[in-house]
Amino acid sequence: MASDAVRTFDRGSAWGRLATGHVGRLGLSIRALPLVVPVNYLVGSDANSLIFALPSGSALSDAIDGTVYAFETGGVDAETQRWWSVVARGRADLIVEPHRSGEEWGRLQLPDDTQALLGTVQTLVGGDVPSAQHVSMLAEHLAAVSTRPS
User: Hey, where are the domains in the chain?
Assistant: First the structure.
């Protein structure tokens, strides 16, 4: 059945899904150790970048400045009941004086001293699966992981 298949998004659809959310997971490597943290984000006005909000003066913002990142966000489409996910990868650079005005930034309701990180997107992929299939795939994965010997 075609409706049960995993579908991939074209680049425009992936950017469209990114624009619907404001929370995702930022993955990076700090001192050769993997780290994934929840972040607020916005799609940049150039439609080729993401802007991540980080606590001002945090070690995280200093550590990621100028490095490669991975970012993921997802949700369930209310109309189609399909679980979707978009993953982006690129280079992150600290924005010294971020532009904090505008409807999008205001919607995030962040403290005034929030720093911003500009993530230039080099790779963008996305897709969706039926929600029931996603839950089934997740359950199978968890069962397989929990039965592996340590």
Answer: 2-146
Greater confidence (121 vs 147) lies with 121
With 90 as the cut, is the pLDDT of residue 24 above it?
A: yes
pLDDT in the model for residue 96: 60
Other C-beta atoms lying within 10 Å of the C-beta of residue 39: 21
Question: For residue range 91-136, what is the model confidence (pLDDT) as tens digits?
Answer: 888 776 555 545 455 566 566 666 666 677 888 788 877 666 655 6
Spatial CA neighbour of 90 closest among 57, 68, 117: 68
CATH class of the region 2-146: mainly beta
Contact (CB, 8 A) for 35 and 64? no
Q: How many residues does the chain have?
A: 150
Give which of 47, 56, 54, 57 is closest to 28, Cα–Cα: 54
- What predicted TM-score, i.e. pTM, was given to this entire model? 0.73
What backbone phi and psi angles, to 5 degrees, belong to 3? -70, -15
- How far apart CA 90 and CA 79 sit, in angstroms, is 31
For 18-144, strand residue ranges (E) read 23-30, 33-43, 49-54, 67-76, 82-95, 115-130
Residue 1: partners with Cβ closer than 8 Å, 6 or more residues away: none
